Amino acid sequence: MNGQTDGSEEGPLRVPRPRVLVAGTKFGQVYLQAFRRPGFPFELAGILARGSERSLACAEHYGVPLYTDPGQVPGDVRLACVVIRGGLLGGPGAEVAQALMERGVHVLQEHPLHHDELAACLRTAKRAGVVYHLNSFYVNVAPVRRFLAAAAELLARRPARYVDAACGFQVAYALLDILGRSLGGVRPWAFTPPAPRDAAAARLTTLDVPFRGLDGVLAGVPLTLRVQNQLDPADPDNHAHLLHRITIGTEAGNLTLVGTHGPVVWSPRPDFPREVQDAATGTVHFAEGPPGGADSGAAGDHLDVPSAVPLGPAEAPSYRRIFDTVWPEGIEHALRRLHAAASAGTSPAREGQYHLTLCRLWQDITALLGPPELVRGEEPRMLGPDAVKALATAAEGAS
């Protein structure tokens, strides 16, 4: 037996992978990277771009056709990732998405979009009978999905009492999406304008003040939001101090997404034993009874829980791994959702309405913050492996 089949036998059935178009080759290169993953369940059908040297190089690198007009896209392409800036950022992303949908293509579009652009895309999707998803990107990466799953479990047990969050202004929409999915929505919301900078304090430093703070309410929960409202016009995608950092607090403790790529940490609320607080008991020390002893019991079980514990990996991935694995895997997750919705004929109306609400919220917040302060980023930005090792050695020495 040589494994071959003759005309009387049928070989193993091979289900063709759905063919996907990627429109845009700047941040679109992150999407293109996903198609290099072993076992990726989608096939790259081509690239749609203006025909720049970068676009030509990408098409050659991936061995696919380069199209410069939606009308050139073959009819067997049923899915598209539109990774072109929308009108808010000076790009034609919304128009490209609508042109593809009018040809019967289901679209996953990279955020952000203006509210009115998103509404127009959703109307086009309904008219064309296709599925349209706005992708805030970061909600699909594995560490954020872990945070969302842990938040759902936590808030099923204890209601949220407060949220403390910070982000760079470039990824503020994604932050709001993470919060909305954590809290089960964003309404009602209200925010107070940021406090004016104090002149006396400003005279005490020569450094810029990167973060602006907003106090308010989101989904009925008190929220403190800090946004690095700064931009280096020569390098707009860099020089953020962080992407996202979120803490959801409850009466039992708080759940923290330390960074967009983890780790996720649970920290019980500080709780001193009542025996020490109550002078009438005469207790003068923290008793540590043996398991099952007189000092143990269900009422004190929480005292044995670590005061901070990672939920999932304790170490966040390197940026090399983020670019090579974490982000492409997140894109696969988003594409799978789009393909499943398209196969099931799911209406995009409900998710679309949620994103329309997020657009309103995002536009309210950006209006309160005002235009980002223009800054000039400094080099070098990051510590190398030796410097990080030195930090770890110093920290270990202090113990």
Structure description:
With 399 residues, the chain is α/β, with parallel strands linked by helices. It has 2 domains: 19-135, Rossmann fold (3-Layer(aba) Sandwich), CATH 3.40.50; 141-315, Dihydrodipicolinate Reductase, domain 2, CATH 3.30.360. It has helices at 28-34, 53-62, 93-101, 115-128, 142-157, 172-183, 199-202, 274-277, 319-344, 349-369, 385-397; strands at 19-23, 43-48, 66-67, 79-82, 106-110, 132-135, 160-168, 189-191, 211-218, 221-228, 230-231, 244-250, 253-257, 264-268, 309-310, 373-374. An 8-stranded mixed beta sheet has the order 8-9-10-7-12-13-14-15, with helices on one face. Helix 3 packs parallel to helix 4. It is globular, with a radius of gyration of 25 Å. Mean pLDDT is 90; it is low at 1-12 and 292-298.
How much β-strand is present in the residues?
Answer: 15-25%
- The largest sheet has its strands arranged as 8-9-10-7-12-13-14-15
CATH architecture annotation of the largest domain:
2-Layer Sandwich
Helix content: 25-40%
**At the third CATH level, what is the topology name of the largest domain?**
Dihydrodipicolinate Reductase, domain 2
| Poorly predicted segments | 1-12, 292-298
Q: How many structural domains in the coordinates?
A: 2
Largest sheet composition:
8 strands, mixed
Instruction: Count every helix, treating DSSP H or I runs of 4 or more residues as helices.
Output: 11
Note the overall shape.
Answer: globular
* End-to-end Cα distance: 66 Å
Average pLDDT works out at: 90
Task: Give the C-alpha Rg.
Answer: 25 Å
CATH superfamily of the largest domain: Dihydrodipicolinate Reductase, domain 2
**Sequence of secondary-structure elements:** EHEHEEHEHEHEHEHEEEEEEHEHHEH
The count of DSSP E runs of length 2 or more, i.e. the number of strands, is 16
